[in-house]
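Researcher: Quick one. two chains, 670 residues in total.
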Amino acid sequence: MAETAGGGEDKLSQSTFAPLAAGFAGALGLEDDCAFLTPPAGEDLVLTTDAVAEGVHFFSDDLPADIAWKGLAVNVSDLTAKGARPIAYLLSLAFPERPEQAWLDGFSAGLAEAQAAFGIRLAGGDTDRRPGPLSVTVTAIGSVPQGRMVRRATARAGDLLFVSGTLGDSALGLMLRTDPGRAAELGLDTAGANALLGRYLRPDPPLALASHLISFATAAMDISDGLVKDCGRLARASGLAAAIDGGRLPLSRPAREVLDREPRLLAVVATGGDDYQVLAAVAPDRAEAFRRAAAESGVHVTEIGRLADGAGVTITGLDGRPLALGATGWDHFPP
Amino acid sequence: MAETAGGGEDKLSQSTFAPLAAGFAGALGLEDDCAFLTPPAGEDLVLTTDAVAEGVHFFSDDLPADIAWKGLAVNVSDLTAKGARPIAYLLSLAFPERPEQAWLDGFSAGLAEAQAAFGIRLAGGDTDRRPGPLSVTVTAIGSVPQGRMVRRATARAGDLLFVSGTLGDSALGLMLRTDPGRAAELGLDTAGANALLGRYLRPDPPLALASHLISFATAAMDISDGLVKDCGRLARASGLAAAIDGGRLPLSRPAREVLDREPRLLAVVATGGDDYQVLAAVAPDRAEAFRRAAAESGVHVTEIGRLADGAGVTITGLDGRPLALGATGWDHFPP
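Model:
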């Protein structure tokens, strides 16, 4: 223990990070030990924390601006799926060695972009120097009308399952990232490949959906670990079974091209993760109004299945036949 | 990147951690993606985040219960110094490999003890598996009457400086930990050595002082990086100079015995850190009332110096002569 207790640790650098806190009075310019937050009247606060680490959630050669975006986006995604409006976040950085100022400047620029996109401000945080991968831990705070946070465990039998946006782009992007030759094999043009790669780097949670989830969803959560796994969590928490129609999963143009060429990659779309879209359960008689309200705020939602009494998740392939899911994951893909 | 995105990460284990969230309705038994918090009426929330990591803030052979206590205590210390009453916390754990259940049980037992001592409840969190040291990142939330968070930058020239409890125990404990032979050299008996070692392992912030800081302090912060460094921060933030009388630093019985034997170890007391006591600035005409109110709630506070116009921190030694502080820390100790 070369460093004495408390060594290697400090509040966030004011010169780098104070501009990110400028819009948030309670951050006190990052000059104090704590931030304060005057809660919006009549609202509950919604709290979440998630970390992204080098080698697990991003690559060491990712741009610092992209790492910053992702660290914030994965937390805002949780807030959005709970119906919450983002307010502020705390940032805890761990570096194996002191980062270059250019890296910090890029990181801070990425945070600024993400803050503007998500309507969230930096409230405070700290940095630590310690061995191991660079990691970015964010605690995000949002708000919902009192008692209205959208939960995971409150879906009902008969509810329809909706997802926002398109699925699988990020997982296919990761596949291209780790095996660049695949893009040509799959017949993707440069624009298509870049679109998938970009979705892995910069998840874009559908913030405009939040208020509609409060109005229409019986339950919701974000899809971070893959549709099948996360749908299983929602169904299990609600004491229900889920049936997903794999042929209805919403796909981007390049993802559609990929599946046209290799239909078995539907498994990557359904299980790959890092989507940061919303999975929502909606009563059938509210479904059309939900779809319309979402569309009017610019978010496309797609009905992909249904909840019923029972347990477990089933998903059909593009051919309508069930995909087999083994104890440890996907054992078989349709031929 | 062996793991796919999202791999190696999960919400906190319910079987281990849900009992810690039992008293907090908004934690939803740790079964949801986010927690919610209904803010106390008329209060501001106070937010802080701090991480403790193996090899930096604790030793790899420390008991998991002690690591848990410290991870929570260092955050509650920040809340206390701002006048805040603890409410809830989020916990983000990073393990290089899956921990043994016995380790987790000990860790969870330590959290339970700390929660009871500090009146705080677990609201949520996540665990990550990644290389590097075990690290425990806590985001703690407290509350103060609206607009009353005690700040760092609001002290005034002429204010007296007070500290709570005793200083240096933890830093001396760390010294004994790294060099066990020192206890005998310093003439410490077992009880004395253990008291110092225990203060390093289990900081105990003076929660009962929080409301008195709101009533009496013009500024305050917790002492985590050493009295001199932290006093320098408070003075600088307030645009003032601080003069500390080293002969007045409050000492425990074993710390007093150590300094009787080796007066130069006053530098360890004044700069060693990990005290997790409160440094407060109080106007002279309020000082006696502050001392009395603190004593009535069981917290001993000691006047150790004064703020004045100017800049910088000076501290006198036990002999009343100034201790010399160089650009990079303590250059010289009195003979």
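Residues 95 and 129 of chain B are 5 Å apart (CA to CA).
Researcher: Thanks, that's what I needed.
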